[in-house]
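Usage

Read records sequentially. Each one opens with the input sequence:
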Amino acid sequence: MIVFFLLSLCFPYSTSRSFYVQAPPHTVIKRQALGPGNNVQITKIDILSEIQYRYSRTTIEAYFKNYGQDANIAEFNTILPDTAFISNFSLTIQDIEYVAEVMPKEEAKKTFNQQVKSGRGAGLVEQDFRDKNVFVISANVEANGKVLFRLTYDELLERRQGFYEQVINLKPGQIVDDFNIVVYINESLPIKSLSVPEVRSNAIEPANNALAKITKDIDGDSSIAIIEINLSKTEQAVLGENGIGKDIIIKYDVERKHNNEVQVIDGHFVHFFAPENLKVLPKHVVFVLDVSGSMEGEKMKQLKDAMFTILDEMSEEDSFEIITFSTTVAHWNSAENFRFGVIHASGENKLKAINHILQLTASGGTNIDGALEKALELSKSLKEIKTLGSEVQTMILFLTDGQPTVGRADHQEIKEHIRTLNLESGIPIFTLAFGSDADFNLMISIAEDSGSRAKQIYEGSDAALQLEGFYKEIASPLLSDLEFEYVGAAVDEDTLTDTHLKTFFKGSEYIVAGKIIPNEGNFTISINCIGQDSVNEVLTVPSTPTVRSEAQHFLQKLYAFLTIKQLLLKEDGKTKALQMSIENNFVTKLTSLIVEKGNNNKEEAFILDKRPKIRNYSSGMTTQSRSGVSWRKQPQFFGGPTKGGWSHHSSGYYKASAFGVPRSGGSSSGVLRMGGSQYQDYDYYGGRNTPLPTTTCFGKLTLYSKTYRRGESHEITDSSDNLNSFTNKAVSALVDGNCCWRVYANINLTGASLLLSPGQDYNSVTSLHALFRNIESVQRVIC
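and closes with the structure output:
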């Protein structure tokens, strides 16, 4: 007998979704927590992803078997891409398939309330989201029984930094006997740059995945490719003790000869706009950074890492401002460094800004509204006095790791206030929610209201790289104020998706889709925009459709997907969005997914129980129980207790700076306190140090000009009195072998020094402390 069913999701919208399953009276439920004693195992996982016209449809099939003599719970979970819509779900038990139905959310609530009123068991799940959709479903399986979960979701792949990226995330929690992934790509243009990096980890530059078999030019067609990944039990074990637990990614692009590509198939058209080789527009970035108490420790260190790279790589044509906020809001050096209200990204100004960032410390509350108000006030004032040229793209990059606690705290009030302040200027506000405690709902709303987007940054060793990656996506604006016009009787103008784009960034793509009226001839497309290179042009497109094919289905779904996404952002678009969601069987914030039994087996039913919020963490899991139903809660992970920032030398001799320490002075030695921790390795000398014996160790020291062992590198195998061309460039380091290395601020092994040891992490901008970009000589020593 089937006695238990649970379905849970977290979705990227400000409104929750509902899932309802009814149960007749007298249903007996036996629940058992998942864990080592559970005899239910996954025996097979098959994943098929079909991509056509950048539109992806992915189906995951997970087969479970209960090897025990008692009924047990089988739990299936996966993480969907944050832009995906579920389009189908089914559960097969005892050769009977139960298919979920999409229906309006209010109707689901009504049914739920009726069941509660009649005294029959029922459940309703309403959950918020955390950037990605966490899909969890459980079913009770009889002794020696089997169950098949089948989930299908649709996604329009977005082009970022020159690539489309398909991400498949599945964490089975065990080694699976049979694990297969097939990705079939059938594009409209020849495929180029197809790769499958190693299973996603914190690697800075992951290599190609040796487990993936890539077949290109299928039947001589360069637009078709197949990727196959068949993971043996041994290979899964290498990827994780409990099986694969990381993302599998497929990256590719298509070969373009023109800026525009238009496909017309059976009543629909889609216009892909992706110009290349254009000059980058100058930009003015207002960085708004959370330095409240919750940023203390690892998050502050990673913020400094990311901001160092971002500022260091800014073009001299760019300008910037830095606002920090906690209980109060601070505008960096506004009186001292600003000329006409702008800091130009000159080498000198970038050094000063990086030094300021490295001295930040975390404390106080979180004044989100006040910080955004200040950022908009500064940005608007620059526009009003015309300090910035008309071609300069102004944007705000806002980062927070928490909830508003100072000033306006009501989310709706903050959203309305910022929307009102920005109504006339329309300045893009890109938002970053750092960690699981940040209010991603609010961040999405603020970003979308300004025509921008939000991103969640997950806590972990690669958080700084996530921050850098997001910035790189918006660091190179090519065009602004784009208008797409579709003229001709053949175009059904009421069906067009959004035809205005505020800013087009390098390596991205903009898509417009719509319906075609039959037998109405050709239509034209005109594009107008602002940029250093002109792409204003007029295209003539024949509306004659091609022969019906599988491509027709994908194009229709692409149109529906894009239209629903955009309608959900509009107050007057909800009715049409709901209609299209039901027509296309998409689970959106307006619809619910329901699984219920037919009339033949009333004694068998599913029960849905409310689950706690699901969050993503990097730590392990614990199992708890709520209302008799097992659920898994992942513990919160915090960084170490270390604060960021630099403090005065304990002797009061000098204030430590990220850009050097005294070159002269007595032979005083002391403790440099950085971020609340004490480092006894620092000796400050006026003369040369006495070398230590170096005859019984081996290895090398590699210094890097960027964080996380990137950029230029300089290899050292023995003591060096002068680094010459690499002087004052070192940002991170790697120690190989069993030698230690003492690095010095001056040539000839003099000045402030720091001991670098094997097995230690020197990836961060804070790792070298006061010798950050301040190393001139190196001594090899015995540890």
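Summary fields computed downstream for this record:
- The mean pLDDT is 76.
- The two ends are 66 Å apart (CA to CA).
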